[in-house]
Amino acid sequence: MSQQSQGKTLLHVLCGGIAAFVLNAGLMALLEVDMRSFFGVSILLGIIAGLLWDITDKLHS
Questions:
Q1: Is 70 exceeded by the pLDDT of residue 1?
Q2: Rounded Cα gap, residues 34 and 49, in angstroms
Q3: Residue 2 region, left (φ>0) first, then alpha (ψ -120 to 50), else beta?
Q4: pTM, whole model, 2 decimals?
Q5: Which of 8, 32, 36, 58 is most buried by a 10 A CB count?
Q6: Which residues fall within 8 angstroms of residue 36, CB to CB, at 6 or more apart?
C-alpha cells in the first residue's frame, strides 16, 4: 500500500468519524435529548462508513 493510499484511507476514516460526531451532536441539540451514550456507537459507524467509502473509491480507480 502506497503512502498516498494510506493517507487517503486515514482521511476517509477521519471524515466519517467527524461526520458521525457532528450528526449526533446536531441531533442531540435539535431534539433536546441526552444522546451522549450514543457518541461511541455513532463514531464507530462513521468510521465504518469511511472505510466503505475508501473501498468503493479504490474499486473505481
A1: no
A2: 24
A3: beta
A4: 0.79
A5: 8
A6: 28
Q: What is the pLDDT of residues 19-58, one digit of tens each?
A: 999 999 999 999 988 888 888 999 999 999 999 999 998 8
* Integer angstrom CA distances of residue 13 from 17, 40, 42: 6, 14, 13
* Rounded Cα gap, residues 57 and 28, in angstroms: 31
pLDDT at 26: 92
Name every residue whose Cβ is closer than 8 Å to that of residue 58 and which is 6 or more positions away in sequence.
5
**41: three-class secondary structure by DSSP:** helix
Cell representation of residue 24: 449526533
User: Whole-angstrom Cα distance, residue 50 to residue 17?
Assistant: 7
- pLDDT, residue 3, reads 74
